[in-house]
Amino acid sequence: MPVPRARRRPADPPVHAPDADLRAAPVDVIRTYPGAMPEGDTIHRVAASLRRSLGDRPLTRIELPRVPRPHPTPGSRIQQVEARGKHLLLHLDGGSILHTHLRMSGSWHLYRPGQRWGRARAAARVVLATDDAVAVCFLAPIVELLDAQALRRHPSLRALGPDLCDPAADLDEAVHRLAALRVPPPTIGEVLLDQRVACGVGNVYRCDVLFLHGLDPATPIQDISARRLRALLADAGELLRANVTTVERTTAPQAGPGALWVHGRGGAPCRRCATPIEVSRLGEQARHVYRCPRCQPSRACDGDS
Q1: Is 297 assigned a catalytic role?
Q2: Tens of pLDDT along 222-257?
Q3: Of the listed 10, 14, 39, 141, which one is catalytic?
C-alpha cells in the first residue's frame, strides 16, 4: 500500500531561520509532539542535529549530574551519534558511550553559548558543550555511560528488533519475531508497540498505519497473514522515514502539514468517510488507540492470505 509522502523541510536552512533546526537554538527537538513519547523519527532527528552541531568537535563541558563517575573529560570528541529506535547513543573517542532514552518526560535542546535555557538547570540530565553550541538533555529518565562490552550486553538494546527508520530494515526478521509472540495471541495494536519486534513505532504511527490498512487495533495477529504483517511493517517504516526531515509530523499530507489520519482526533470526522473517530484503550498498558469504526471495522479474521 503506497504511503502518502509528507512535506519535507528545505535542505540546510540558514542559522537565523526560526525553528528551522537545532542550530536555531533554543529549540526543543520534540516541540511539535508535546505530551507524547518520542517515536523513532524524533530520535533520528535528534541524532542528526547533535551530529551536525557537536560531532568531531572537542567538548569543552561534560556534565552528567546523575551518572556515576568516572565521566569523559573535556577535550573528548563525539565520534558517532546513533539512533536505535527510541534510544540515542553518543560514542566518544575515549571508548565511552552515552545512552539516553527520553520516554515521556525527556527532551533535547540546543543553545548558543551564553544563551538562556528554556528549562530550569535542575532539570538538566546531560550538558555537552563545544565552543559553538550547548546541548542539554532535560528530564530523561535513562542516562547512562556504557563501554563496548556493556553496550553489547545491554538487555534493552540487544533485544531491539529491526529499526524501521532504516530503509534496509530486515522485515522478514521482524515478521519472524512476530511469530514468536503468537502464544498467547496478542493484538496487532499491542505488537506494533513492542520494540522487540521492530523498533521505532510509537502510538502515532501505530494508529495511523492501522488506519491505512483498514485494521482494527484489537485484531489478533494470528488472524493476519504473514504477507499483510510484512506490508504493515513496511508502511510503518515508510511513514517514519518520511518524517525524519519534516517540519511537522505528518501522515495525511493532503490535509496539510502536521495532519494525522486518526491519532489524536477522537470525535473528529474521519478524513475519508466523515465517521467520528473513536478512542479506546488497549493492552496491559491501556494506551489510547484511535480508529475509524467504518474504515477499520471489527472483524473476526483477516481475509488476506
Answers
A1: no
A2: 899 999 999 999 999 999 999 998 878 999 999 999
A3: 39
Upstream peptide bond of 220 is cis (omega within 30 degrees of 0): no
Distance of CA 75 to the CA centre of its chain: 30
Classify the C-alpha dihedral 208-213-219-221 as positive or negative: negative
How far CA 11 is from CA of 15, 21, 246, 274, in Å, comes to 12, 10, 10, 36
Please give the sequence-ordered ranges of beta strands (E in DSSP) within the chain, or none if there are none: 27-28, 61-63, 78-84, 87-92, 97-101, 107-111, 124-129, 134-138, 142-146, 278-282, 287-291
Q: Using CA atoms, how far apart are residues 301 and 49, in angstroms rounded to an integer? A: 44
The answer, yes or no, to whether residue 21 has pLDDT greater than 80, is no
From the list 38, 72, 186, 217, the catalytic residue is 38
Of the candidates 72, 86, 162, 217, the residue annotated as catalytic is 86
- Is 3 in a helix, a strand, or coil? coil
**What does residue 256 show for φ and ψ, rounded to 5 degrees?**
110, 165
Average pLDDT of the residues in 206-222: 96
Which pLDDT band, with edges at 50, 70 and 90, does 26 fall under? very low
Quick check: is 86 catalytic? yes
Active site annotation includes 39 = yes
Measured CA to CA, the distance from residue 40 to residue 33 in angstroms comes to 13
With 0.70 as the threshold, say if the pTM is over it.
Answer: yes
Domain ranges of the chain: 27-158, 171-291
Please, what CATH class does the domain formed by 27-158 belong to? Answer: alpha beta
CATH (one of 1.10.8.50, 3.50.50.60, 1.10.357.10, 1.10.10.10) for 171-291: 1.10.8.50
Q: Report the chain's terminal Cα–Cα distance, integer Å.
A: 16
Cell of 74: 573535556
